[in-house]
């Protein structure tokens, strides 16, 4: 029941927050690049969702199927710290070189992607808990060898990290801008 607990108590509240936040963006804001980040809000959502599918979900399945890893091995020092503090460090972790997430076209598409992502997380929680205390580990390029449950937990930690990034961008793009309001209003004569 550990993965289900992570799903219910940690992942789902932040995922629901991300889903609800999509109601507060115009599509132009969703695609707006700022000095606060090289990424747009749409790119952050794409990174959270598609990055999880491409990396975390794949690693979890490999752990559950016992392939591409080993039953032994441990976390790196940074991996140990991330799990000890249940958070990414305050300093920036070097990502994949020259990686830029794709831009999701609009908030409706992002909502659809979020629903599928949440559903897959729920399904995986059941699979992980059904497998029991699995010890098989697959290597994370920065954090070392992780079990399926650790990979699953890392999804929620990663998601929270990017929520902070999104909130920094929100401070810029959600500021009232009369020119934008005027452009989108109908003229009264």
Question: Can you describe what's shown?
Answer:
- There is one protein chain.
- With 189 residues, the protein is mostly helical.
- 61% of the residues lie in helices and 4% in strands.
- It contains 7 helices and 2 strands, in the order H-H-H-H-H-E-E-H-H.
- The protein has helices at 2-21, 27-30, 41-65, 77-85, 107-131, 148-173, 178-184, and strands at residues 137-140, 144-147.
- The chain has a two-stranded antiparallel ribbon.
- Helix 1 (2-21) runs antiparallel to helix 5 (107-131), helix 1 runs parallel beside helix 6 and helix 3 (41-65) runs antiparallel to helix 6.
- It is globular.
- The termini are far apart.
- Mean pLDDT is 88; it is low at 177-189.
Secondary structure: number of strands: 2
Shape label: globular
Count of helical stretches: 7
Tell me the strand order in the biggest sheet. Answer: 1-2
Strand residues, percent? under 5%
Radius of gyration equals 19 Å
List unreliable stretches of 5+ residues: 177-189
Helix content: 55-70%
- Class of secondary structure makeup: mainly alpha
Order of helices and strands: HHHHHEEHH
In whole angstroms, the N-to-C terminal distance is: 63 Å
**How many strands, which pairing sense, and closed or not: the largest β-sheet?**
2 strands, antiparallel
Overall mean pLDDT score? 88
What does the secondary structure layout of this molecule look like, with pairings?
Elements (H helix, E strand, L loop, with lengths): L1 H20 L5 H4 L10 H25 L11 H9 L21 H25 L5 E4 L3 E4 H26 L4 H7 L5
Antiparallel strand pairs: 1-2
Helix pairs in contact: 1-5, 1-6, 3-5, 3-6
